[in-house]
Amino acid sequence: MVNDLSFFETVYQVARMIPEGRVTSYGAIAKFIGSPQAARMVGYAMNGSHTQKEFVPAHRVVNRNGMLTGKHHFGGPETMRELLESEGAIVEENQIKNFKELFWDPGKELMEGY
Description:
By secondary structure, the chain is mainly α.
């Protein structure tokens, strides 16, 4: 993916495309934007997403196993889980149980040439 946006801005742009009721992983976003080794940086971007003027649905981005690893960045220990459950996710012990069913892969689901 080639554009003139900063890394974090690009991550936010992709995260905003995640459909309600779907989830993706830090690694899937990193791979889609052409930085497959930067999953941790995608996580850092999600941690700071609350400072953006336009809403970033960071609650829809989890680790590769469906774990809510960023839950402490949502203002309350249960906020991320509550947001995900309100969109149809089944969360038990901080893990999305229907992760495979809800997984949204930007590389497969967005048009080429993004």
